[in-house]
Design brief:
By secondary structure, this protein is mainly alpha-helical. It has one domain. About 55% of the residues lie in helices and about 5% in strands. The chain has 6 helices and 2 strands. It has a two-stranded antiparallel ribbon. A hairpin with a 2-residue loop joins strand 1 and strand 2. Helix 2 crosses helix 5. The longest helix is centred in the C-terminal third of the chain and has 22 residues. It starts with a strand and ends with a helix. The relative contact order is 0.10. The model has no long low-confidence stretch (mean pLDDT about 85).
Length: about 150
């Protein structure tokens, strides 16, 4: 019997592609404790590659990787907004920071400093970007209609 991937039989020479979160280094569909264990081991032992936590493939597990992983972890758990308020400095209180995913944000900020906060915040798309792109698309569509008439 051959190996399976996501319910499909695959050969050794097949190239496999699957959507997942940054930091889902074991490809189980979630960023969880097992992933953080692997990422921490990659950081502590200077390893590289996705399976070791180098999710941005820059050759080292560093604050950039933890920023991406923590963002994915908070996105899947619904605590992204609180993490952003804590990291952008608008609310650095400990109120509402007791969830495990938010404690990771606090710990990583203490470990890596403001570079971590900047990396985390830069990796979160701004809601206004979607509005601007939507406005441009609507504008382009209306210009196309006018040319036909």
């Amino acid at each position: 019997a051959g190996a399976t991937f996501d319910g499909f039989t695959v050969a050794n020479s097949d190239v496999l592609v699957k959507f997942t979160y940054y930091g889902d280094v074991d490809f189980n569909g979630l960023v969880d404790f097992d992933d953080y264990s692997r990422i921490d081991a990659g950081f502590n032992n200077n390893r590289t590659g996705w399976a070791n936590g180098d999710v941005d493939y820059n050759g080292i597990v560093d604050f950039d990787d933890y920023s991406l992983v923590d963002q994915a972890f908070n996105t899947q758990s619904g605590s992204l907004r609180r993490a952003m308020a804590y990291l952008d400095g608008s609310d650095r209180s400990n109120l509402g920071m007791d969830a495990p995913q938010l404690q990771l944000v606090v710990n990583h900020l203490q470990q890596f400093g403001e570079q971590y906060a900047a990396g985390f915040l830069a990796s979160v798309p701004e809601p206004t970007s979607a509005l601007v792109l939507g406005g441009l698309a609507a504008s382009a569509a209306s210009m196309r209609r006018r040319r036909r008439n």
